[in-house]
Amino acid sequence: MTFKEYQEHALTTANDDRPLEFYHRVLGLVGESGEIAEKVKKLIRDGDGDPTQLDKKDITKELGDVLWYIATIADYLDITLEDVARTNVEKLADRKSRNTLKGSGDNR
Q1: Is the separation of the CB atoms in 85 and 3 below 8 Å?
Q2: What is the pLDDT along the chain (108 residues), one digit of tens a residue?
Q3: CA-CA-CA-CA torsion for 8, 11, 13, 17, nearest 10 degrees?
Q4: Torsion of Cα atoms, 50 then 45 then 43 then 58, to 10°
Q5: d(Cα 8, Cα 81) in Å, to the nearest integer?
Q6: How far apart are CA 97 and CA 108, in angstroms?
Q7: Which of 55, 66, 81, 94 could pair with 7 in a Cys bridge, judged by C-beta atoms 3.0 to 4.6 Å apart?
């Protein structure tokens, strides 16, 4: 499945009728990301923090929820998921070429 195909499928389950839909999606993204963080926290709390001990089916579902929110937020802003991916890869390649992958700041 391509990013375009995924984004089109994701949008079939998005609700654009709510007046605050953009904010709903952004907060949903944060919430779903937090669910992943919570699972990792419990992995550290209850075990040795070995990521191979995570339930792959469960994490796959949570990552899918994150992806859904990213795809629908991008669409809400008239951005394709392909553009998001391309821009990110180009940004990281540029940082690598300038040896600035490490460090902080958005524009390094």
Answers
A1: yes
A2: 999 999 999 999 998 888 899 999 999 999 999 999 999 999 999 989 999 999 999 999 999 999 999 999 999 999 999 999 999 999 999 999 998 888 887 777
A3: -150
A4: 180
A5: 10
A6: 12
A7: 81
